[in-house]
UniProtKB/TrEMBL annotation:
Protein's UniProt name: DUF7033 domain-containing protein
Domain DUF7033: 89-177
Annotated organism of origin: Sediminibacterium goheungense
Pfam families from the UniProt entry: DUF7033
InterPro entries hit by this protein: DUF7033 (IPR054297)
Length: 427
């Protein structure tokens, strides 16, 4: 066991120690007890003690609420750090990790993007060039090396690298299972705009001579079976078709059968509509629809358009019975929003408590690569492989997000479909 001395054991300190070390560390406020402890130890105080690595704490873990923090960037072992001090570990690794994992900066004044989300340009990681690395996990690897100088047999808690595919089903079908009114309207719009390829596809899909282009589910099933993957599927079930919540009507037989079949084979979750973000009753309705279609209780979620606001959205998810959220990433850039690739429990800063909501962060999403980073398929492949290798080095979870309507055999998407299949072959 790792022993940590702190004269003040706050809720925040207890949370971050449990998050970083699982159940392999204990905290004591008794200096005498600390000095006779066996094994590696950390002196998390400004007191001079005879044993252990010293880390000088800043105030963040002893505070409540939120205030502007003095964040000045420095370097340690080639890694960016902040909350610097004069200890043997020359920055407050616990305070800095709490700042990043709790998303402390998202509670402060910031600029929102065009969709009303926390803009990634505000983040410390983006402004200081470390969004592409799971910095907290890198810090912990270096801390492990320092502790091994005291006790060569010391190891951080074991964890295993795994790949976690996930799919957002924003538009389950392009033409199938749509309302007659929407299909007729679409037909005349295609005719007016002279979109003859779309007219042809509509006709062949309506006559059942061709599968709907967005219906790629059997192809995905074959990939998952071949590469032994266990994906998540998140279904958008907005009752009102209002931009950007424009999936197929959730009450159609097509949606019912699609969800029922996926619930039988995979983990599924709700993709709460943007409309639900500030209306708990809408979220509850969408969860009931998914429960009805699947016949299962729903415990997983990812916000549509990644639209969430702390602490409001996460509190609503907890009240609705969600146990794990997959929204921790940016919509307009790929990278590590919380500077980790390891699942962790959300800490509600305003209520000053660890919650029951587990956060599974992702680091790559196809729509960010396509529309915001504007990568071609070769560059996107390189990005995916980079994130894969980066997460593998720290034994994290390589979680990524794809959309069925960007993996079709349509001419504008066929290269992206091919890229994804090639990526899986290289693993």
């Amino acid at each position: 066991m790792l022993t940590i001395f702190s004269p003040h054991i706050s809720k925040r300190l207890a949370y971050i120690v449990a998050t970083l070390f699982s159940d392999t560390a204990i905290i004591t406020d008794n200096a005498a007890e600390y000095l006779i402890s066996e094994g590696p130890c950390i002196n998390y105080s400004d007191q001079l003690l005879e044993t252990g690595l010293q880390i000088i704490p800043v105030e963040i873990l002893q505070e409540t609420g939120v205030r502007e923090q003095s964040v000045k960037m420095d370097q340690w072992r080639g890694l960016p750090v902040f909350f610097s001090g004069k200890g043997q570990i020359p920055f407050d690794i616990f305070g800095a990790s709490f700042y990043l994992l709790s998303r402390y900066e998202e509670y402060l004044g910031h600029t929102k993007d065009e969709y009303g989300r926390y803009g990634h340009q505000n983040s410390l990681a983006y402004r200081n060039g470390f969004l592409d690395i799971p910095l907290v996990d890198y810090w912990m690897q270096e801390l492990e090396k320092e502790l091994q100088k005291i006790n060569p047999s010391y190891r951080l808690p074991d964890r295993s690298f795994r790949i976690q595919p996930s799919y957002d089903i924003d538009i389950a079908y392009r033409f199938s299972h749509q309302s007659p009114f929407k299909n007729i309207k679409g037909y005349f719009l295609d005719l007016l705009m002279m979109r003859f390829d779309d007219l042809m596809e509509r006709a062949t899909v309506y006559s059942r001579r061709q599968k709907d282009s967005y219906d790629i589910y059997e192809w995905l099933d074959a990939l998952h079976q071949h590469y032994q993957l266990k994906p998540f599927y998140f279904f958008l079930l907005a009752e009102k078709q209002k931009y950007p919540d424009r999936n197929v009507d959730p009450y159609t037989s097509g949606m019912h059968l699609l969800i029922k079949e996926h619930a039988r084979k995979y983990q599924i979750g709700i993709h709460p509509s943007v409309q639900s973000n500030h209306d708990k009753s809408i979220l509850e309705r969408e969860l009931k629809i998914l429960t009805y279609h699947s016949g299962l209780p729903i415990h997983h979620s990812r916000q549509h358009y990644l639209k969430f606001e702390l602490p409001l959205t996460y509190r609503q998810l907890i009240e609705a019975g969600i146990q794990q959220d997959h929204s921790m990433g940016y919509g307009a850039v790929n990278g590590f929003r919380a500077s980790t690739c390891v699942p962790f429990y959300w800490y509600d800063i305003m209520e000053d408590k660890k919650t029951s909501l587990e956060i599974l962060p992702f680091c790559y999403m196809d729509s960010a690569a396509i529309f915001h980073e504007r990568l071609n398929t070769e560059m996107a492949m390189e990005r995916m492989l980079y994130f894969f290798e980066t997460v593998k080095k720290v034994n994290g979870v390589f979680s990524y997000v794809m959309h069925n309507h960007f993996l079709t055999e349509q001419k504008e998407w066929i290269m992206w479909r091919s890229m994804y299949e090639t990526f899986l072959k290289t693993l």
